[in-house]
Hints:
The structure is a single chain. By secondary structure, the chain is an alpha/beta fold. Helix content is 36%, strand content 24%. The chain is built from ten helices and ten strands. The strands form two sheets. It has a six-stranded mixed beta sheet, sandwiched between helices. Strands 2-1-4-5 form a four-stranded antiparallel beta sheet, with helices on one face. A hairpin with a 7-residue loop joins strand 1 and strand 2. Helix 4 packs across helix 6. Adenosine-5'-triphosphate (ATP) binds next to helix 1. It is found in: Cell membrane.
Amino acid sequence: MKDQLISIEHLFVTLNGSHQPLLEDVNLTIKMGEMVGLIGESGSGKSLTSRAVTGLLPKEMRVSGRISYGGNNLLELSDKERYKQLGIKIGYIFQDYRGSFTPFIRIGKQMTETIRTHIKLTKKQSEQLAREVLNEVGLEDKTIYHRFPFQLSGGQIQRAAVAMTLALKPELIICDEMTTALDVITGEKVLNYLAKVQKETGCAVLIITHDLAQAYKHTNRIYVMQQGRIVEEGLSEEVRCHHKHPYTKKLCSCLLALPGEDLITTASQVMVK
Length: 273
Ligand SMILES: Nc1ncnc2c1ncn2[C@@H]1O[C@H](COP(=O)(O)OP(=O)(O)OP(=O)(O)O)[C@@H](O)[C@H]1O
Ligand code: NI
């Protein structure tokens, strides 16, 4: 399809020496301007899927299938070609945010250097942009800009990483558990900023999360993953109200009911198997 931005087709990932694939025939597409959710319990393969897109799978894994993006198969790109795509075209917010910055270089310096690698701006303009995006995610630029990463809390580093990625205005943003390190209010603030950038730039977003409420609120379409496979896909509202797969039903029963629906159970009471 013409308006498809990225298309993952028959993706298999297997650990060397093992026969049991970690990802099995994963198919997932994202259109221009779409916000797509990828949900599933811990260990179901969400991060591996996003790592395959960005070429960051561990060396000891074999991968097959196709990831079409901009006329290329991302699985066949050289490291250099892939690096060119990352950042400016595909922005990736890591689940393990501690790796987002080098510990002993000040946040501001790292941000401006990254911005200038990808966008033609003067030093002054890139500093202004870095300060602007820090403020957008609720970090006071006056204090944070000159700090070293080790002087920030986990949630502050995570927000700085989000700010850094969004500053580059990529056409596809992959957020892997972007709000896990944040409290509810800060998390919502960051998600709202993401939605604002999405509206402004028309970029596509893949939100990986096990927070179903977040996925329903912020995405148009949802994929549900279980044990390395996509088990259900549909418009967020449909998946929420008319899910077909028993696993999705279990996941959904963890959510608080909408007004007018029966309250089922809370997350802590449900064992998802
Ligand atoms: N480096 C690795 N070596 C071996 N197995 C791995 C490696 N990384 C991930 N796996 C396995 O692959 C499977 C999928 O992992 P993945 O990180 O994609 O899960 P996830 O859905 O992102 O979970 P979470 O919600 O906890 O982040 C898991 O069974 C995990 O143990
Ligand atoms: Ni993960």
